[in-house]
Design brief:
Rossmann fold; single chain; 18 strands; seven-stranded mixed β-sheet; alpha/beta; 2 domains; about 350 residues
């Protein structure tokens, strides 16, 4: 990667590492000094930009760099530049959704979300400090019958159960399901080894450490698994649920299909919703517009959250946790993900 930067005409001065450098020079690049991140303040000529090529944990340093007047650029997110072209093509639909927000904060956060994904700068996002899925006025209530789409390790189901809800969680991946089942047995909620979708069917999916996705092509074919999908409407009928009060969905890009599979329940009961709105670029307008087509009386809000160790321990990992604690950084990462569309 260093070679590509130099060949591309970049004026590289330093190679930054969060670890104690074993060498102070690269033999193949004698003009490139190796510097520990903690030693940046001691450098007489600070760089204008820091280009991150490694793990996304490096984004945790964005505010530290900003204090020094350095702009952080993450290489792995440069693909987001294509989002600006997509947004320009769909401005009318995006503006329609913007006008659906009645509160100024949702409009600010929504515009910041668009800007951040277009500029590829984490600092352009507006992050909410409150717990994810618990926005005032859109919160689950004690006694709610709650659908938890994307159980992962069961932490979200346990959180909703603790809040007094009757929880039905769904997890596509068999490995994650076993972990979630242990949590469900301890905390007293239901978890099903189904993915959620528009119809009942068997699908191929690709597991990963962060959440399993149908049609994820970033892993090899030999990692492919099969799983069963079910729609919310079918599940409600099968289990003879009297109603649905709240739906949370974080299911790796299958949110719209799942809403379509819940159309009867949504039309009948108008549950409050907390829907992840970042897995696909079109989520910024398709989710809200579909819900409005079913229930024109829905009201919406929009928030963006830092990724928290409490919610995503596997995403950080033990090494990541130690990494952040070593540099006295919070166990929350400001990043491009974790945007939620709320409806009531």
């Amino acid at each position: 990667m260093t070679k590509r930067f130099i060949e591309g005409g970049f004026n590289l001065q330093y190679y930054l590492t969060p670890l104690d450098p074993e060498v102070d020079k690269f033999p193949q690049y004698p003009d490139l000094e190796v510097v520990n991140v903690s030693d940046l303040k001691r450098i007489s000529s600070l760089p204008k930009y820091v280009f991150i090529c490694g793990d996304w944990l490096a984004a945790a340093f964005v505010h530290r760099f900003a204090e020094l007047g350095i702009q952080l650029i993450t290489y792995e997110e440069l693909d987001n530049v294509k989002n600006s072209e997509f947004y320009l093509e769909h401005l009318p639909e995006i503006f329609d959704v913007y006008q659906m927000f009645n509160d100024d904060e949702s409009r600010r956060v929504f515009l910041a979300f668009m800007l951040g994904h277009s500029s590829c700068r984490v600092s352009d996002f507006i992050f909410d400090s409150m717990p994810q899925y618990f926005l005032h006025g859109f919160m689950p209530k004690p006694g709610d019958i709650l659908i938890d789409g994307g159980a992962f390790d069961g932490s979200s189901g346990a959180m909703f159960k603790k809040y007094g809800c009757e929880v039905y969680s769904f997890e596509l991946d068999s490995k994650n399901f076993e972990r979630a089942k242990d949590r469900a047995n301890r905390d007293g909620f239901v978890v099903e080894n189904f993915g959620l979708g528009e119809h009942s069917k068997q699908v191929e999916y690709f597991p990963n450490n962060y959440g399993s996705a149908v049609g994820n092509y970033y892993v090899s074919e030999d990692q492919k698994r099969t799983a069963q999908l079910i729609s919310i409407d079918e599940y409600v009928q099968d289990k003879n649920l009297p109603r649905i009060d709240f739906v949370k969905l974080d299911i790796e890009g299958s949110e719209l299909a799942t809403l379509k599979g819940a159309a009867l329940s949504i039309a009948r009961w108008k549950p409050r919703l907390a829907i992840s709105a970042y897995h696909r670029p079109e989520d910024v307008f398709t989710l809200a517009k579909f819900l409005k087509s079913i229930r024109p009386d829905y009201e919406f809000a929009f928030r963006h959250y830092p990724t928290s160790y409490d919610n995503e321990p596997d995403l950080f990992g033990a090494v990541g946790k130690v990494f952040l604690e070593t540099f006295d950084l919070p166990l929350k990462l400001p990043y491009f993900y974790e945007s939620v569309l709320y409806a009531r």
